[in-house]
Amino acid sequence: MEIEALEKQIDYIFHNKELLKKAVTHTSYAYENKVESNEKLEFLGDSILEYISSDYLYNNYRKLSEGEMTKVRAQVVCEESLYKIAKKHNFSDFLLLGKSEIVNNGNQRQSVLADCVEAIIAAIYLDSGIEQTKKFILSNLKEPIREAVEHVGQKDYKTVLQEKLQENGTAHIEYQIIKEEGPDHAKIFTSEVIYNGTVLATGRGRTKKAAEMEAAKKALEEVR
């Protein structure tokens, strides 16, 4: 593994290089090579991530209610969001995987990459403390947090559409992603909303959820 290349990706130089190596060591590799995996680092990183994002929201978005802060944090500190960070920094190139995971393209799995982000967060914390950890987290999450805060008061169009269509009885509603465009770190998704087998509308967004929400919003305009 090219330690220096990974350090360049995350803009942090480790004092203890073994911490970084452990952070990218998947359980499959650890089992095959009788070394420690990144699972315990992932556990610690999850708590640190939640603390730093909560602290940032509390101090920078004082007009938000407790419930709104909780919604924003849940949207930003999630597997999909962490996966995007991993793709942005090319973590898939540095993961240490066992033979079975390599065969099954484990380095592209969303859950594996998201766990790796949490492990690296913990590794930075153990290597140099909270300030460098905060720098890494916020450099990656400031913009997603800002976007989430902007939309936190919006209606949940998917719920409203569900309720509207069920006024006349049972409604089978599903969403399908029909297109993905752009590089991994800046994808645009297109979603269809389908009602009892008929496409009602399509929507686009920077996340699958946003695309589905836009599709639901457009569908509501049609059925009202």
Strand tally is 3
Estimate percent helicity: 55-70%
Give the DSSP E fraction (strand runs of 2 or more residues).
Answer: 5-15%
* Number of structural domains: 2
Radius of gyration: 20 Å
CATH class of the largest domain: Mainly Alpha
- Specify the CATH homologous superfamily of the largest domain: Ribonuclease III domain
Can you list the strand order of the major beta sheet? 1-2-3
Q: What count of helical segments does DSSP give? A: 11
Strand count, sense and barrel status of the largest sheet are: 3 strands, antiparallel
Class of secondary structure makeup = mainly alpha
Shape: globular
Mean pLDDT: 91
Distance separating the two termini: 57 Å
Task: List unreliable stretches of 5+ residues.
Answer: none
CATH architecture of the largest domain: Orthogonal Bundle
Q: Describe it for me?
A:
61% of the residues lie in helices and 11% in strands. With 224 residues, the chain is mostly helical. The protein folds into 2 domains: 3-151, Ribonuclease iii, N-terminal Endonuclease Domain, Chain A; 157-223, Double Stranded RNA Binding Domain (2-Layer Sandwich), CATH 3.30.160.20. Strands 1-2-3 form a 3-stranded antiparallel β-sheet. α2 (17-23) packs antiparallel against α8 (110-128), α4 packs across α8 and α5 (66-76) packs across α9 (130-151). The relative contact order is 0.12. The model has no long low-confidence stretch (mean pLDDT 91).
Q: How would you summarize what this structure contains?
A:
The protein is mainly alpha-helical and 224 residues long.
